[in-house]
Every structure is written in structure tokens, then in C-alpha cells.
Amino acid sequence: MNRTYYIAGNWKMHKTRSEAAELAKALVAQLKDGKHKYLVAPTFTSLETVAAIVKGTNIRLGAQNMAAEEQGAHTGEVSVLQLKDLGVQTVILGHSERRHVYKEDDALVNKKVKLALQHGLEVILCVGETLEEREAGKAEAVCETQTVKGLLGVAAGDLERVVIAYEPVWAIGTGKTATPEDADAIHAYIRKVAGKLYGEDAAQRIIIQYGGSVKADNAVQLMAKDNIDGALVGGAALKADSFVPIAKFS
Ligand code: PGA
Hints:
Elements: E1 6-10, H1 17-31, E2 37-41, H2 47-54, E3 59-63, H3 80-85, E4 90-93, H4 96-101, H5 106-118, E5 122-127, H6 131-135, H7 139-150, E6 162-166, H8 180-198, H9 200-205, E7 207-211, H10 216-223, E8 230-233, H11 240-247
Parallel strand pairs: 1-2, 1-8, 2-3, 3-4, 4-5, 5-6, 6-7, 7-8
2-phosphoglycolic acid is lined by residues 10, 167, 172-173, 211-214, 232-236.
């Protein structure tokens, strides 16, 4: 199965608009001949600035989160309608920082997933176990639950716009990466879970990114694995010098 590699940069809560613009311009210039699928996800405040720079290029525009409701009295939240208005094409949902720091549960993540899909966005649904869960032998079970509950009620026809990112919580921003073998095993398991939900064909097509301290020097080994179809990159996505080599891996 030839799946397209998909490399995404999650800028988290970094960069002012001018800093975001500078990075986006560098990426547009340096990735224009890139062979893979690309995305950058700036903070909400930089979306409009970055949208103008990546428009019409091979770099998609992503948001890092969105509200579970379309609009209304939700102080501090950002709506899917507002994201679409800015040209956002993709939204990252269920990131471990949302789950663990801001206490988003599977039901809330699922509501957001369905709303984003309903509005035509692509979704990157993040799943992954904590260190404690891994040590207790629960990594597969946690990823299965987050995948099944995250996709609850998602129609087979919408699955083409769903990407799953496996991000072991203990590997995010810690410099620790899952070994390519360990990551691939979980990716294969997630694919099996998707197969149970949507059938083998759909499961073979679904893109599963790995995230957690991806750097230029481990990207190739990770992406050489059968079930690893790309990367969701945090720290190394903040500079063109560190992101471009990952994005251009071959
Ligand atoms: P990291 O972050 O690359 O800094 O580990 C990945 C992520 O949180 O998406």
C-alpha cells in the first residue's frame, strides 16, 4: 500500500506573527520541491498571517484545537466557522497537552472531531499513552480506546479526512523517542483497530503519523517502518533548519 507521507509541524504556543511569518516564508521557499504532504499549525493569533503566506503552496494550514460548539457563549474558545473563515484546512484534535493539561476527555474530543468533519476540515486525531500506562502494559489498550472513542459516529466516507497521530506522551518534548520498532507496533495495532471499525481497505489507506521528539536524525528510521506514514513534529518544527530535513527525508 502506497500511502503519502505526511509531515506536520505543530508550533504550539510559540511565535509572534512576525516570527511565524518568517518561518512560514522559509518553509514555502525550501519545501516547494518537497515530495510529501505538509502542514503547519501556528497558534490562533498567527493563522491569518500564515494563511496569506502558504496559500496556493504545497503547505496546508492547520489549527491546534477548536471548540466543540459552532458558536455561542464560549468565552476564550475558537469556532470551526472562524477557522474556516481564515482558510484553515486541518485541525489537530486530542493532542496530549489538551488531554492531560487541559483535561479534554474522549467524549469532548469526539464531539470536536465530528464537528470538524461535518464542516469539511481534515482532522489529525492524536492518541497515545503516558509512561505509567506504558509501564503497566496498557499502551495498546489506551490507544485503542482513544481511537475508538475519538472516531465514534464518524462515517466511513469521512475517514479519508482523518489522520491519526500516535504520540506517546512520554516522548513529547522530552528528547525520548519510541524506537522505530515500538512505534511501528503501536501503529500496526491502531491500523488493526481502524480495520475492525471500517474494514481492511480503509485501514490500509489511513495515514498514521508518529509524534514525540522527531528529529532529522531519527525521522528516516521511523518512517522506514511499514505503518509509520509521517510525523507530527513539535520542537523541531520551530526552525526551518530543523524542520526541512525532516520534511524532505527520503
Ligand atoms: P515534540 O512534540 O516533537 O516536541 O516532541 C510533538 C507534538 O507534541 O506534537
